[in-house]
Amino acid sequence: MDLAEKILELMDEQGITKYRLSKETGVSYTGLTKILSGQTKHPQIDSLQAIANFFSKPLDYFMDQEEEQPSPDWATPKDLADIKKILEEDQPVLFDGVPITEEKRQRAMDILTGLLWEAKELNKKTYGRKNKPKDEE
Length: 137
Known about the structure:
The chain is mainly α and 137 residues long.
């Protein structure tokens, strides 16, 4: 079930209209309509958090776990936090001064995620601690 379907199901269960959900959450009616139509597949985190709060659901409920890129086996919790922090800066992505579509933004973020993991791995190999294998300890 995708994001739009999850929200629509909750709205239906509770008899909530788009207008009311928009007013109660502070998410613009146009923005909410785009989310519900599937035009916006990855809304801003604050909008999604407001919707999650309204329905008393954790934010993870709305996240599509299948879309999340897996992290490398060698990644530590600190590595995961570093990459997450870089990617979650909510700045608009512009090309030639014009905001790009959500779909293209997500594609760029996926590519950037891969590049950041490669850079992190190279950094660890070049400058990281030289840990002894467990059998040498």
